[in-house]
Amino acid sequence: MVRTLLVRGLLVGLLAGLIAGGFAFAFGEPRVDDAIALEEAAAHATAPEHDHGEEAEVGRPVQKAGLFLATGLYGLAVGGVFALVFAGLRGRVGPGSDGRLALVAAGTAFIAVILVPFVKYPANPPAVGDPATINARTLLYLTMILVGLAATAIAVATARRVTVDPWARGVSAVAAFLVPVVAAWWLLPTVDEVPEGFPATLLWQFRLVSIGTQLVFWTAFGVLFGWVSDRAARRTIAPVPG
């Protein structure tokens, strides 16, 4: 069964990754082009004597094509991990239906792994960010991911202990999730490396597309994985014609 779920996760993850890649290509790449143009203009203005018309080692057409490769590989990786986690949760935590469990698990993963760190450390386009601080920023982002995962585990444990009333269970779980997350948002240092004069509209458009791409991926993945899982479950329990 685990092997079946793993194959399902890989295939669905690949498809969801390509769907997300299409969204990023349509709505994100124009923002990246604008940011790169600003970066090149700023570099030319500050050091025109060093500008000899050199082009990037990898041209933009190749980078745009590589976007689908990147999102496809991302989908494969996420799909494999999700399938293994789903196999562990199945029948133990969450809704009894495989389809609903897939939707809940995908939504929870999006909130814990994507949304929680994004609120504190949103994505930035090219020309934003100091290369010297990339290691520190990566560490802070990974810390927020760990906080999101830990908060999710605490929320699930709290929900399982509160069995008196469904509303009390839900409120307790949400509170148990938000307390460590909000504390981390408040305690961890803020990173603001947006250069002066960078267009605010372009910055927020890029960030919206960035989180939108993840939302498209996780929505597509949860819906497709849940749909396939429900169909597989119905075939398993269908009566055999006598």
UniProtKB/TrEMBL annotation:
Keywords: Membrane, Transmembrane, Transmembrane helix. It comes from the Bacteria. The chain crosses the membrane at residues 67-89, 101-119, 139-159, 171-188, 208-228. Coiled coil: none annotated. This is Cobalt transporter CbtA. It comes from Spongiactinospora rosea.
